[in-house]
Amino acid sequence: MKKSRGRTGRKRRRKHLQSPVDGVNCSHKLEYIKLKKWLKDRGFEDSSLRPAEFRETGRGLMATKALQVRDLIISLPEKCLLTTSTVLSSCLGGYIMKWRPPVSPLMALCTFLMAEKHAGEKSPWKPYLDVLPQTYTCPVCLEQDVVTLLPEPLREKAQEQRMMIHELYMSSKAFFSSLQPLFAENTGTIFTYSALEWAWCTINTRTIYMKHPQRECFSLEPDVYALAPYLDLLNHSPNVQVKAAFNEQTRSYEIWTNSPCKKYGEVFICYGPHDNQRLLLEYGFVAMDNPHSSVYVSSDTLLKYFPPLDKQRKAKLSILKDHDFLENLTFGWDGPSWRLLTALKLLSLGADEFACWRRTLLGEVISASNEEHTWNVTTKICQFLTEETQHARLQISQLKRSKENLKNHLALVEMLHLEDLKILQKSAEILCNLNMAT
User: What residue range is the signal peptide (predicted)?
Assistant: First the structure.
């Protein structure tokens, strides 16, 4: 009897593992066993979640029972959270308190992560550090060959982010040197640029928002970070809703779901209504069929289709800049955004219509010719961006063949362009239908 139950159990399990939507349970792996024991010692009660490997999203958390709306997904005690309080109560605390000008809360957390990673077996945070990614796929970690293939607005933001980490590193060198009494090795070999990049990406991609009181030993930047072991295995979906906050009564960080989840399904949370460029920049991934996704139109692209000899061109640009109409101009799943159309309508105003520019910003129709010109230019921009996206995809496929080591990073950028292409094709369809209707 026992045997036969074991056999059917095995069969059923095998069938479950082959299901395309379910994940493969990973809770038997040593690093997760150690992490769960470490969390239990800090007061974490085992929840209805298990670490698992999913085909679409990679590592995540699986529900061991069906979850209903308003169910508590996870409750992580304060003792399990890594915050600036953790840093100040460590051997780094005294050095941070004495250092002038004061370091930022973010820098304090980065320094702690680098020091604990260096400590290896001696670190009390080792079970958590062992399950953190060793490398990240945020644009700051990508090779220049790959960054060049990103859409223009994202490419600029990636360069800005890289500069910011570089400045953070250069400005913190003296502070790192002040920590020398804590280490047998030279601090220059511990607090390296690549170590800081890893620590910064760990915090940027994984922290939960948790407001802490302002402390004099830190700079005035907001202290709103908390690393949450185990909880940070939850992946993002733009289609779920959750309620997440620190509960002052239970002294735990809690997440409640507003979206049901079936047994053995992946449990998701939502990081916010972010488009794919933001998701890639901040978290290092792309969500397919993301309802919040957009394709951005740069001001350079915008001006390609307007005569440079237009006498009012300078004034039009000045108006758009003053009213913040040169940023966040997009195509979405529902076609060109209202902001993009408004900017194009203003740029399309004839010399005799220019006096009506205020009405344009309010969304009023100025003339049939202005409307027609706007739709024509919008269609041309949509075509231009489609060709640009297709060209980028061609470059990616060529690079994939010659640079085997960049395959994973290139696949990520390719996903981003594929999503952009779908949006532009949908927008072209909408524009075509509108042109026919008018």
Answer: none
